Amino acid sequence: MKKIIYVCNVSADHTANFAPINLYSMKHTFTAIDFETAQGKRTSICQVGLVRVENGRIIKEISFLVQPPGNYYWDRFTDIHGITPEDTASVPTFDKLWHLIEPFINNQLVVAHNGFSFDFNVLSKTLEYYGLQVPEYEKHCTCNLFDRKALNTLCGVFNIPLNHHEALSDARACAELYLRHLANP
User: Fold this and answer.
1) Residue 61 to residue 98: CA distance in whole angstroms
2) Which of 35, 63, 71, 90 could form an S-S bond across to 168 if both were Cys, CB 3.0 to 4.6 Å?
3) Cα-trace Rg, the chain
């Protein structure tokens, strides 16, 4: 027996319309996210990369440089991602960009590589730092889905282009990995 799930839409005149949900499109609709940080503090976001996937296709990519608190960097973090205090001296802080990021996260399925150890924690700590509400969202981690293998290793195995530690490139690679996981669960 085939299960059909319906969604109910209520219009302004209070009439209800029921429509079947396309489970394929729901499962294949998500946001992949990646953060780069300026230092060891989880509140020090200096770059955000977002990739929106709908019905299995990338439809939007966004990347922001972000001024971390005090525009303070540890040299070893700059050595990893190449972002410097000069790069972020005149860009907005995270709280000023949140309204552009939130629609891709709030009530969405969000995927990150190493998300449970890093990205999801970075997001919640940064929102708390700025006194912003942490949204509800479903979290998935491609690192966990692919046996804890590193992003650059997986990209090599699957021939996915990667400019490692550039947030948009990492988010794009994460989106490609998650799509591969959905195709071969």
Assistant:
1) 16
2) 63
3) 18
The answer to whether 73 touches 39, Cβ cutoff 8 Å, is: yes
pLDDT tens digits for range 82-95: 999 999 999 999 99
Cβ 54 vs Cβ 24: under 8 Å = no
Length in residues, the chain = 185
- Contact between residue 42 and residue 121 where contact means Cβ atoms under 8 Å apart: yes
In a domain? residue 19: no
Q: Which two tokens stand for residue 96?
A: 């000023």
Inter-residue contact 5 to 26 (CB < 8 Å): no
Domain holding 54: CATH number? 3.30.420.10
Structure tokens at 175: 């989106």
Please give the structure tokens belonging to residue 82: 């190449």
d(CA 57, CA 71): 36
Specify if 15 maps to a domain.
Answer: no
- Could you count the other beta carbons within 10 Å of the beta carbon of residue 157? 11
Burial class (CB within 10 angstroms; exposed 0-12, middle 13-18, buried 19+) of 124? middle
